[in-house]
Specification:
Blueprint: H1 2-23, E1 35-39, H2 41-46, H3 48-57, E2 60-63, H4 69-72, H5 82-93, E3 97-105, H6 111-114, H7 120-137, E4 144-149, H8 162-166, H9 170-181, E5 186-191, H10 198-214, E6 220-223, E7 226-228, H11 233-244, E8 249-258, H12 271-289, E9 296-301, H13 310-313, H14 333-343
């Protein structure tokens, strides 16, 4: 009996130790590229679990909203770097890389920008001042920038915006201005939905080719990867391959995998759905791992836990579970699957 009790104790101890070791292992330990998350500074300061998870699980940080125009340049003669600086400070305390998002976008622009009056030169001066003031403020603290975000429509045409309306060739000029402000920062073009949208993908590839000919400084492509369990694997793979063929750095920049894309109010997260989501996460990670190491800028999730996702907030989809961590900031089954995949490599 004594021997049996001893064996049970040893077995229990081994099990507990294994569980403890598992919790002390992180996906990022097994990657040769940064694993990132977009963060909200309010959550960093008010949610201890959120803060500790970002610190322990990720090696790269992106500001989800607080470096966008409306927040960082709210008035013509006033910049507000306070929240961006908080994110930088947190990243420095955790020795994390920071990726800047985003300098130029048609959305989340400040009201004064929408109401701006002037000729082409005045518009160029305004945008150049915005870009260079922001980039210089963070010079040496940010590894790369999404310089221009979502400039093309699905049909490959240039998206109508205040920038395309008033500044011819605004995309190229934005890259030049950003490079002037911080020659060491990597500069990315960032977009979504290229899978299944060949005209959009073609427009981006043509832009890259043209920029290279004109010696416009562009160093990377951000593939947002806001996908769902219904996204087609072959279309995703094709976009990755076409993007990598440019030779630029590749960033899966805003990853989430929606499980309830039609916002069904009666949706139930069951084992079958979980398996479909796991397969999509594994597809993204395995495809990225196959890229040349020199092109692997990193994979960034669009926030941390399911409750923090913009799909719940912006799109008001309460029954959506698109990330690696659940509402209680616990690892989901997909987390272990991804980690096991890299542990075996």
């Amino acid at each position: 009996m004594k021997k049996l009790i001893t064996l049970i104790f040893l077995g229990l101890h081994t099990f507990i130790q294994a569980q403890s070791n598992a919790q002390n292992e992180y996906i990022k330990q097994f990657l040769r590229f940064p694993l990132g998350a977009a963060v909200n500074p309010k959550y960093l300061s008010e949610k201890p679990l959120y803060r500790s998870l970002v610190a322990s699980e990720f090696s790269s940080i992106t500001a989800e909203n607080h470096m966008k125009m409306v927040n960082i340049h709210p008035e013509k003669d006033r910049f507000d770097f306070s929240k961006g600086d908080e994110i930088i400070g947190f990243a420095q305390s955790t020795k994390s890389r920071v990726h800047g998002h985003t300098l130029v976008w048609h959305n989340q622009t400040a009201t004064w920008m929408k109401e701006f009056q002037g000729d082409q030169q005045a518009w160029e001066n305004m945008l150049k001042n915005h870009i260079q003031t922001v980039v210089k403020h963070y010079q040496g603290q940010i590894a790369g920038w999404d310089v221009v975000n979502e400039a093309f429509l699905d049909d490959g045409t240039l998206r109508p915006s205040i920038w395309s309306e008033h500044i011819p060739d605004y995309i190229a000029k934005s890259f030049v201005w950003a490079h002037e402000a911080d020659p060491r920062a990597l500069l990315f073009y960032n977009d979504y939905g290229q899978d299944g949208k060949p005209k959009k993908m073609e427009a981006i590839l043509n832009m890259v080719q043209e920029f290279k000919k004109r010696q416009i400084p562009i160093h990377g492509l951000g593939l947002q990867m806001h996908i769902s369990i219904q996204s087609k694997n072959e279309e995703i793979k094709e976009v990755i391959q076409q993007s990598a063929a440019t030779g630029l750095s590749i960033h899966f920049s805003e990853v989430d995998v929606a499980v309830n894309p039609k916002n069904n109010p009666d949706f139930v997260l069951d084992d079958q759905v979980n398996l479909k989501q796991i397969e999509k996460f594994k597809l993204l990670f395995s495809s990225f791992a196959q890229l040349p190491a020199s092109q692997q800028y990193g994979i960034t999730f669009w926030n941390v836990g399911d409750q923090d996702s913009w799909l719940r907030g912006f799109f008001k989809r309460p029954k959506e579970y698109p990330l690696l961590f659940n509402e209680a900031y616990q690892r989901k089954a997909a987390y272990q699957e991804v980690m096991d995949f890299f542990k075996k490599k």
